[in-house]
Please model this.
Amino acid sequence: MPDYSYVKRFEKLGFGIFVHFGLYSMVAKGEWYLCSNPKAKKEKYESLMHKFNVSKNWAKDLVKTAKKIGAKYITITTRHHDGFSLYDAGKLSDYDAPHSASKRDLIKEFVDECNKEGIIPFFYHTLIDWHHPTYTSDFNNYLDYLYKSVEILCTKYGKIGGLWFDGFWSKPNADWKFDRLYQMIKSYQPEAMIINNTGMSDRGKVSHPLVDSLTFERGRPTTQEESDRPRACEMCETITDHWGYTKKDITFKPAKELIDTLLTCRYYNSNLLLNIGPKGNGILPTMEKSTLLAIGEFLKANKFFIYDVKKADIEAENAMLLKDDKHYYAAVTGVEMVADPNVAINHVAKTITIKTNKKIKNAKYLDNNHKAKIENDQIKVEPFAYGESLYARVIQFDLE
Model:
């Protein structure tokens, strides 16, 4: 039987950062600008590469931020649908970062920083291509171009966590020759995760036997069906409505909503891949970075418990129960802050019931190590004291 231990290791990463970055970041109107804007001129858009001058510290700031908040991996758009590559495409194309105003291989910089900080690099690569003429005129020729492009990513940057593909839904009846592509990846990177986004219409579907993870784009994962082999699960979500940087998008999801999403993902044995869109110079937008740091505060307070946990073998009312090799965890969302009634509205404290015939012992709050009081398998969850409010509390406990 094949060794799928790399899939199990991916599941334990728990939380990753998705990065949509490219020429579209300069326009500041989203990653689909070239296709969705009828007034967009392709030649004018592609000439932006001559102004695409990325900050020298962009990768360092990105990776250090990911590490600080507790993310274990970063998936970056090495090439998006506009066909522009952040890596050195060599003889295949000069529509890439080394031929831009940056004059550098930006993926090399990204991987180097990941390796320094112990963050695992993953590569997003488009299947759609609005730049390469053979995508519409000679599909088999285009597939050769795609194959050779991915081969560069598999051979030039050392060991990577995996490849994340997107767009095969654009030609649902085409023969994408995925057998050939995936087998090539495994020949160079045998432990690389192969992920191919099934889009919002087919969340959680297995698109090919060699795919290593199911995808849930903008949709919370659910209980997964029995599979022919071990597979992971990953939800991708973005902080605003867009994936790429958009100046006029102010629909920032609050940190508490994203914390809830992360906990739900772990409850359903899924990773969360949370997207940010750097500006055209590679710098992270203030609000997106602040949101990430807020999530990091919650994870730090709760001892970064999310990595090894899976859905527990028992249930609870008003809590998501998770378990690792040592302990159980009751994750309770929507926990209020207690205060003088002239300062804040005080609500009724949450009560959770753990459904078990075993004795609950050693129960404590991860955020302050205080003991949790248990009566008849019930815990009246203590609110946050005035001076802190982290939205959710996690109670660690054991059974005997």
In short: The mean pLDDT is 96. The CA atoms of residues 204 and 214 lie 5 Å apart.
